[in-house]
Predict the structure.
Amino acid sequence: MPDDVAFIGLGVMGYPMAGHLAAAGHRVTVFNRTKSVAQRWTAEHAGEMAETPVQAGTGASIVFMCVGADEDVRAVAYGDDGALGAMSDGSILVDHTTASADLARELAAVSSEHGVGFVDAPVSGGEAGAQNGVLTVMCGGDAEHFERVRPVMGSYARAVTLIGPAGSGQLTKMVNQICIAGLVQALSEGLEFGRRAGLDLDTVLDTISQGAAGSWQMSNRGTTMMADEFEFGFAVDWMRKDLGIVLSEAQRNGAPLPVTSLVDQFYKRVQEFGGGRWDTSSLIALLRPPPQR
Ligand SMILES: NC(=O)c1ccc[n+]([C@@H]2O[C@H](COP(=O)([O-])OP(=O)(O)OC[C@H]3O[C@@H](n4cnc5c(N)ncnc54)[C@H](OP(=O)(O)O)[C@@H]3O)[C@@H](O)[C@H]2O)c1
């Protein structure tokens, strides 16, 4: 059944996600802070454009957000212009932003005061996953709200899972980022070791990607890492934001994260030499001999 939905935040991820909603037949209203992006989206897709988040939320049964960090979510969800101000009893707010679990719990409580359901729903799969509609979505919230939004999220995702109560989606995304951080460093070290050993790295990758060392990062980033190509993908600035959330949650729950903490510092160095918008696979650049780095 088509729904009246709103999508707030037409960035690398949100733009194609909102496009999939429109292609699936939902009546979509978009809001983007930089208006020209929303204008471009409405020129390409069937859908309306709103001037403010509150206007986007008016009449929507589901409002999706995919912005930057905690404070950006608060800016579009709350306040005079916030979507929640217009959302009606029984509607549902979904946050696809990678944010803190605290924010998810806060939004769940505030939404509930408005009679609105809330699902935290960070995603994995990157720009290509969003464009191809094959994202993985990890959700926190009530089963009833989750079941209502799950088929709609299916427009742009191939796996949509309820993990637990509000905040569980964000906590799962933290596990995801911990698993990626150490792995990308290990992949960088392996490739640089192989290069210095004089091996044919294409052959090495073809071979070991089929064995126990194989990974999404190896299959999708190995070749570009060897070619020093980083101007695409998931930005180091976003990864540092995510690892900041992870490390502060770990301070609270006591989880030891020695490798993740170290890799966070390596990403800081990538930022310091101007690689903030580079893909996270740029960790390998730190291992290249001077004078390149
Ligand atoms: N890119 C990935 O591969 C990827 C993968 C998984 C998860 N994520 C997460 O998904 C979220 C979005 O990532 P992205 O890559 O799509 O980011 P992005 O391309 O930088 O887009 C961010 C979007 O949020 C809007 N925005 C940011 N702050 C805002 C504010 N204060 N008020 C209103 N709008 C605001 C931006 O509007 P403007 O156009 O006006 O700047 C833009 O539409 C982030 O939390 C990121 O960590 C990203």
Notes: The radius of gyration is 20 Å. The chain has a mean pLDDT of 96. DSSP finds twelve helices and nine strands in the chain. Residues 192 and 198 are 10 Å apart (CA to CA).
